[in-house]
Amino acid sequence: MKITRVITSVILTAVFALLPIYARASVNISAPVALVMCFDTGEILYDRYMHRRWVPASMTKSLTAFIVYEEIEAGNLTMGTELRVSANAARFSQDRRVEGSFVPLQTGSYISVDVLLQLTMLPSANAACVVFAEHISGSEEAFVERMNETAYRLGMYTSFNNSHGAIAHHSNAYSTAVLVREFISRYPDILRITAMPSMRFGGTTYNNTNRLLPSRTMPFAGVDGFKTGSLRAAGWNHSVTAYRDGKRIITVVMGTANVDAAHRYTRTLLEFGFAELDMRQAEQARLEEGMAARVRIFYDGVVIPLTSPAVVHQGELFLPFYVVFRPLGFNLTWNAESRVATAEHPDGRAATLFVSRPSAFVNGRPIHLATSAKIVDNRVYVPIDFIEAATGTTANWDKETGVFQLNSPVALTIT
After folding, report:
1. Weakly modelled stretches of the chain, pLDDT under 50
2. Nearest to 360, CA basis, from 331, 327, 321
3. pLDDT value, residue 160
4. Angle formed by the axes of helices 126-137 and 113-121, to 10°?
5. Could you tell me which of 376, 396, 379, 400 has the C-alpha nearest to residue 388?
6. Are 103 and 69 in contact (CB under 8 A)?
7. What pLDDT score does 353 carry?
8. Strand bridging mode 403-407 / 296-299
9. CA torsion, ordered 123, 125, 126, 127, to nearest 10 deg
């Protein structure tokens, strides 16, 4: 298995080295390892030795928390389930020979899953991970096997030997970002926890180690997670996610000299990531505006006048509902309150469209659309697949020439 993973890692590293990195501005940081990832696409916007083998320290705890959420999804745990603290976990919680955060746990006490997750992700309590490991797998050793199997399944390259990261083992920045993206995608509830500035436990207030949260000491707008980590063997590491203006990015830095540097470099990466996505969005909008301006509609070779402009969004064409359907003889209605558009033809065909939802009814049968209809300038705009289904036609849009053709097996009279 280890040999297979090594070979897989080498292959992946070679493949990723060939992938295009589109960042167009330099990033002035000196962290040994860093990256910026677009959450929506998984694209790497910036890379500084992202596959370099490095000690993740307490960023390891993100994988432990991910497995806890898998157990919740499987019905084996709930947030309210109370787990018993073993003598082993209690001793470990106060073992000063181990680096990391110390949150004392009492032997035989019971702590809810929700509180243990908070202890894991906010003050980075090592022993909270041991409690999870022992409950889920019977022992930490068995749990570590599951961690490595899970990491491999997610496409990470890691060699973990404990559940908490307080004892050195290895991963890399790319694997960390992959985990954060998968975690938020599958279990967005984790952001409820990672966005908490602090928590109370055992009469003590513990601050979130992420200082970039809005209510912490180095706030950055939009930050709502994720996990820090530090060891002498690792330096200071930080994985962070932020959401702003409809865009989410993930950053990772590893091996910085101190906690301030980790947060400072992360701010630089966040600023770069959002600026890069804003630039791309503006370029795409200009491109799509030009594409929309060229659109001409033909029905069985006959021009349908485009009295309202077409819209192109994320490479998909949307046409004005009234402009397309009324010339084909459909009677149209629009209910602004329920956001439902209907088209009925004298020959009995009928279609009902739920705007902002990728679904419709055509001739009484439900259909799923590739994308939702939109409201633009108080007009209903519909996607191509709805037009095809509702009119019984086949459609083709030539993005180069702008020609949109509808072809029907049974000719309709254009009115």
Report:
1. 1-23
2. 321
3. 96
4. 140
5. 396
6. no
7. 93
8. parallel
9. 180
Q: Which residue has the tokens 């082993």?
A: 88
Find out whether 45 and 159 touch, Cβ atoms under 8 Å.
no
Write phi, then psi, for 94 (nearest 5 degrees).
Answer: -125, 20
- Residue 306, judged by CB atoms within 10 A of its CB (0-12, 13-18, 19+), counts as middle
pLDDT at 414: 57
Q: How high is the mean pLDDT of the chain?
A: 90
3-class secondary structure, 306: coil
- Partnered with residue 84 across adjacent β-strands are 110
Residue 287 is predicted with a pLDDT of 87
**For residue 4, what pLDDT is reported?**
41
How many C-beta neighbours within 10 Å does residue 106 have?
A: 12
Q: Beta-carbon neighbour count of residue 392 at 10 Å? A: 16
CA distance 284 to 286: 5
pTM greater than 0.90 (yes/no): no
Q: Supply 348's token pair.
A: 């009995």
Q: What is the pLDDT of residue 102?
A: 78
Label the pairing between strands 302-304 and 311-313. Answer: unpaired
Q: What are phi and psi of 340, to 5 degrees?
A: -120, 130
Residues 165 and 157: their CA atoms lie apart, in Å, by 15
What local confidence, expressed as pLDDT, does residue 2 receive?
A: 42
Say how many C-beta atoms besides its own lie within 10 A of residue 133's C-beta. Answer: 25
The residue assigned the tokens 């939109």 is 374
Structure confidence at residue 337 (pLDDT): 87
Amino acid, single-letter form, for residue 136: I
